[in-house]
Amino acid sequence: MAIKKSTKTIKTKQTTKKVVAKKKVQKKSLKTATKVTPIASKSKVAPYKKGKKEKYMSAKMKKHFISVLKTWKEHLMSEMQKTFDHLKNKGENFADPIDRASQEEEFAFELRTRDRERKLLNKIAFSIEKISQDDYGWCDSCGDEIGIKRLEARPTATHCIHCKTLDEIKEKQLNG
Ligand SMILES: [Zn+2]
Fold it and tell me: Which of 14, 161, 168, 175 has its CA 20 to 30 A from that of 56?
């Protein structure tokens, strides 16, 4: 009995060592993953060049933003699929409960990112819907033009920069 017990202790120690080594590798890969976060590259569509006499939100302009939004959506969806496959494979490979626990941090990080992307996909769908209803590019609060420059940087923007800034100031004041 006593001999059996000591063998067990040694085994546990070895496993712990292994996990520590793995954790180091994980942290490294986590860092790299943060660097290539897809949200930064919203679209690969070239910025719109507005004609001098062109009206704001002309048919051509609307077409441009539809392709910006659709390209962004496709990019997000392929990123989400990649992570889904990645998490699935990992879940299958790490049947050991200790290994599973050491994966938790990375999983939580990935899931938070996916959650953000899901919300973003909803916003993108909403913006595309707005374009089809001729309602895109105008501020929800004051009705002014949101502006091409701002839409190029934030294609899902629903407020002009003035109203957005005002909202943020109000929010800050409310939260002390
Ligand atoms: Zn406004």
Answer: 168
